[in-house]
Amino acid sequence: TIDTTADWRRDLQVMRDVDLDTPTEDLRGLLTDSFLAAHRLWGDQVSLREAERHALTSHAELWRRLGPPPQDPLAPNGDRWAYDFNRLAEVQTDIARFTGTEDAARLALAYSDSALHFVTALTGNPSGHGSLLFEQARAREVLGVATADLSQLARAQEVLEHAAVYREATRPTVYAETCEERARIALAQAHLTPRTTAREPRLQQAGEVVRDAQRVLRAAAASPRAIARLDVLAGEIQIELGVTLRSRAAFDSAEAAFVRVEPVLLPSDLPRPAALLLVQRARLASALGDSTTARTRLDHALEIAGAPRLDSLVILQASALRTSRRR
To answer: Rounded to an integer, what distance in angstroms lies between the CA atom of residue 78 and that of residue 83?
Structure first.
């Protein structure tokens, strides 16, 4: 008899499920990540609340197993507390962005501060160190946007520059995330800056970092949708430049970016990217004085983002645009 399982048995990592010793909070962490990823693609509230539930349950289970978080960041298991609080910060930052509320943003920053308390436990782990700093920057960015506070945005920018040291182009996806956050901070700063002379450099800087992220992703053969999402952000920046400088060339650049990515994003199997593209196309039409087209695109965006998903991030942006048009 020929033993057909020899190669299979040789490749086994563990012999039986009962031999696995994976803490429950680690499994909860994987569930948190999967629900958060689903929310970012679908925009539904259920996935986001499930991510929050699993993150909080993981935190409670870690507390039950290890006791309360130690005051000494170098105490045993300090790294586990760093990752635990960082996961809570990541989820809460998405909740703050989804709801647009100051309380959620402040809670995200509190979680991130707790994670950074244990940053010395990650000495020798540059990717972990960079992740903690990245979430601190995200939390400060959403708080700065929620409170219209330029000082928070400046602090977010400062922290992100430190994070970028650990998030280099050798890790293309992570590098692109850092560039995207850098652009979002610059865009938020421009929104709160009244003078045209001060707004333009921030917007030009935001455009440059988005192009840099796209260059890295293309070199890494990233998915077309990942690159297309950055094209939407680039288009948003060009709209702001067009409004700031009264530049038709900037508006044309935004239109070219949107037309380029529409075939990739507009099929609504991934509703949030599709709806956010339509919101930006509506903003462009509104800036050009075409209120009929703007209204049609907003209605389409809200249809994609509507029940049963109820993506309030899209709804908030659409409502803000409608309010600005009425003024």
So the answer is: 9
Classify 43 in phi/psi space as left (phi over 0), alpha (psi -120 to 50) or beta.
left
Integer angstrom CA distances of residue 308 from 44, 304, 311, 315, 323: 8, 10, 9, 13, 24
- Cα gap 41→272, rounded to integer Å: 6
The DSSP line for 10-51 is HT-SSSSGGG----HHHHHHHHHHHHHHHHHHH--HHHHHHH
Q: What is the pLDDT of residue 129?
A: 95
Q: What pTM was estimated for this model as a whole?
A: 0.86
Report d(CA 160, CA 177) in Å as an integer.
Answer: 11
CB 278 within 8 A of CB 300: yes
User: How many residues in the chain?
Assistant: 327
Q: Which residue has the tokens 């005051």?
A: 71
CB-based contact 25:56 (threshold 8 Å):
no
Q: Is 166 helix (H, G, I), strand (E, B) or coil?
A: coil
Q: Which of 272, 315, 280, 317 is nearest to 297 (CA)?
A: 280
- Cβ(176)–Cβ(210) under 8 Å? no
The tokens for 216 are 């890295």
Task: State the alpha helices, DSSP H only, in the chain.
Answer: 6-10, 24-42, 45-66, 78-99, 102-117, 126-147, 150-164, 172-191, 196-219, 224-245, 248-265, 271-287, 291-305, 312-326
How far is residue 217's CA from residue 236's CA, in Å, rounded to a whole number? 19
- Condensed to tens digits (0 to 9), the pLDDT of residues 127-157 reads 999 999 999 999 999 999 999 999 999 999 9
- Rg over alpha carbons for the chain, rounded to the nearest Å, is 22
Residues of the chain below pLDDT 50: 1, 8, 11-20, 326-327
Q: Is the dihedral of CA 315, 189, 265, 245 positive or negative?
A: positive
